[in-house]
Amino acid sequence: MNYNFEIEKTINEIKNRGAKRVLLQFPEGLKPFSLQVVEQLKEKLPNIEFLISTEPSWGACDIAEDEATTLKVDLIIHYGHTPYTWYYPKFPTVFIEVRSNLYISDQQVANLKSLLEEKYKARRVSITSTIQHVHLIKQLATKLQEFDVVVGKPSSPFMYDGQILGCDYKAALNVEADVYLNISGGLFHALGVGLATGKPVIKVDPYTERNEDLTSEVYKILKVRYGKILKALDAKTWVIIQGVKTGQNRPLMVKYFEKKLKERGYKVFVVTNRSLSKDTLRNVDNDEIDTFVVTSCPRLPIDDLYDYEKPVLTPGEAKMIIAGNLDKYIFPW
Ligand code: SF4
């Protein structure tokens, strides 16, 4: 396993809390390791009952509190995230960060320097990361001494300097830089940094050992997003999607959009949803509906629902329409 599941810490937490029945929750990318984790825990805690949730989980916005209550467990162990910026579970929960053991090789750093110098003539460089690689921020900063490296403060005390989430880019937005580096695997977090800052963004990927300049990819996404925003300007009927996962339920935001969209003369409906997909949109869709705005998770309109046949907007995009100002792209909120 290339990840540290902090087995000893987990065992101590379970013992100290006197838990007998424990629900383990893993995000999608870590689920394949769940059986191995249980085996390791069982070796030291043979009398504890472990259950593994296979429900989808993408963030700490989505702690399996309902499941834990139904299953009558004593404790949730949530792997792969720090607590969410805007919600903390009421159910007893232990967060295990699951840091990656991968590192950024000297060769990859050398390639990165060339890219920063030759393509961008960069002087000031921001470094951000997902939680799995956040310890690499300092290591990379010390190897980029030719540049003025800045690492921004995050939005909550649960997070580390430079740490971002798919819906929280404060650590990038809190600093000014010529180029923004994001240490992560996958695409979404780095693209999010580009969408939120509007600046060149390079993904420093410890899995592939490659540096990917995503600046033109962000530009392509922006063109598509503006197309959807322009189409939504002609809408008559909007549907606001309210999330019902506790950490994704944002009633004040829903009320705000309902009020502001009605003031602008739109007809507005609110629908609720737990796990949004194209199929769930199609089930409610009809000829009257012109545009959707998703208040649960701003990743969904950009990632999973980007090719839905009608505009499916993020809260930031809906705000641009309400403000009547399309000059500055707002992501995510
Ligand atoms: S991006 Fe979506 S899934 Fe990830 S933390 Fe934010 S709301 Fe949750």
TrEMBL record:
Q: Identify the metabolic or biological route this protein is part of.
A: Protein modification; peptidyl-diphthamide biosynthesis
- Please give the superkingdom of this protein's source: Archaea
Q: Which cofactor does it need?
A: [4Fe-4S] cluster
What would be an example GO MF term here?
A: 2-(3-amino-3-carboxypropyl)histidine synthase activity
Q: What InterPro entries does UniProt report for this protein, alphabetically? A: DPH1/DPH2 (IPR016435), DPH1/DPH2_1 (IPR042263), DPH1/DPH2_2 (IPR042264), DPH1/DPH2_3 (IPR042265), DPH1/DPH2_euk_archaea (IPR035435), Dph2_arc (IPR022428)
What keywords tag this UniProt record?
4Fe-4S, Iron, Iron-sulfur, Metal-binding, S-adenosyl-L-methionine, Transferase
Q: What class of enzyme is it?
A: transferase
**Reactions catalysed, as given in the entry:** L-histidyl-[translation elongation factor 2] + S-adenosyl-L-methionine = 2-[(3S)-amino-3-carboxypropyl]-L-histidyl-[translation elongation factor 2] + S-methyl-5'-thioadenosine + H(+)
Q: What EC number(s) does its UniProt record assign?
A: 2.5.1.108
Q: Name one GO biological process term.
A: protein histidyl modification to diphthamide
Query: What function does the entry list?
Result: Catalyzes the first step of diphthamide biosynthesis, i.e. the transfer of the 3-amino-3-carboxypropyl group from S-adenosyl-L-methionine (SAM) to the C2 position of the imidazole ring of the target histidine residue in translation elongation factor 2 (EF-2).
Q: Which family does it belong to?
A: Belongs to the DPH1/DPH2 family.
Query: What protein is this chain from?
Result: 2-(3-amino-3-carboxypropyl)histidine synthase
Name the source organism.
Stygiolobus azoricus
Lineage, broadest ranks = Archaea, Thermoproteota, Thermoprotei, Sulfolobales, Sulfolobaceae
